[in-house]
Amino acid sequence: MTVADYDIVTIGGGMGGCALAKVMAEAGARVLVLEKTTEFKDRVRGEVLVPWGCGEARALGLYDLLHDACGHELRYWAAELDGVQLPSRDLVETVPQHLPVLTYYHPEMQELLWQAAVDAGADVLRGTAVKAVTPGQPAEVTYTRNGSEKTVRARLAVGADGRGSAVRKWADLEPKRAEQRRFFGGVLIDGMSAPEDAMHSRFAASQGLMSWVFPQGGGRVRAYIGYHAASSFQRLQGGRDVERFMETSVRLGVPTEYFSEAKPAGPLATFDATDEWVDHPYRDGVALIGDAASTGDPTWGQGMSQTLRDVRVLGESLTGSEDWNEAGHAYAEAHDHGSEAIRLVDTWYTDLFLEIGEEADERRGRALPLIAADPTRIPDTPLAGPDLCVPDDAMRRSFFGEDG
Fold first, then answer.
1. Contact present, 28 and 120 (Cβ < 8 Å)
2. Are the CB atoms for 45 and 105 separated by under 8 Å?
3. Which of 25, 185, 364, 391 makes the best surface tag, with the fewest CB within 10 Å?
4. Tens digit of pLDDT for each residue in 60-106?
């Protein structure tokens, strides 16, 4: 049998790739991380780790690191549905993990986890261009760096290279795609005076519009606007649309005074929020984690939490078995269980809070008054996670007001 150069080669040095490298290097594995960028820059992306994701970070030994070095706690959730203000929810008191939402500036988080992987003993290389991944026992990874090409072998190659994953193609792991229904746009804002201990959501359901405001501390906020693909809302893109972004936020109920001193601190961009996933993201020495395995609708903020769940489940599978091919399949089965639950409840949320049309209006007419009277009818899977809040028909019926 050919001896592998590494136990694990991870393609992608973001949250998933570096978290896995840290965990597995600490467990004694030889790990190489290949990252194409030479520095992490701001882009519009998720910067919200919901309570169940904080629980995953804690299980991986990452929560205190994130919290203390770059995190900002949001203990409360303030939500408004078609102008009806729901009672503010204390997340620490009401979710099983007893943890808040954690926000942070994404490039700062990436640098922090990158250094954590280095400190754990992983080999990490920036400025690499991966040219091919060949499945097998061992797998082979070919990359170039500083004009030189090299091929390394690994017991496991891990694609942590995002929603446009090249590793997914090389491993012949075909993604599935849901019906397009949502778009999601965001911008980083400085000088915004929103209360800094809560995340704020507002839904104009019949218009298919919604707003999220996630404070990061010190007046910095990552704000988002989501909209249904069938709405007449025009895409928000670039500096020319920042004023319209703020005007729309105010129209959705964000207080005007929040923006009195606000100014953009990063790009404004809108993305297709359609779910895309791979069933069973493992084949012959190649595993996918994070967005490479399953890209959930960012409207509901599950992406980074699911990435950390992937890291935990894959790490536990590998350290618990001498047969890494068997461990890869065990990881893929557990990934699918969580991914399917997240996707199902996210779809319910979209059906009730963002769907457009007469049928959707009738559904809301039945369900929203019941939710306003009892917010616990809202399924908790996006906050508590797919392992502690497994969706079932009783949950669905309660959410849609079909249990009366």
1. no
2. no
3. 391
4. 999 999 999 999 999 999 999 888 888 899 999 999 999 999 999 99
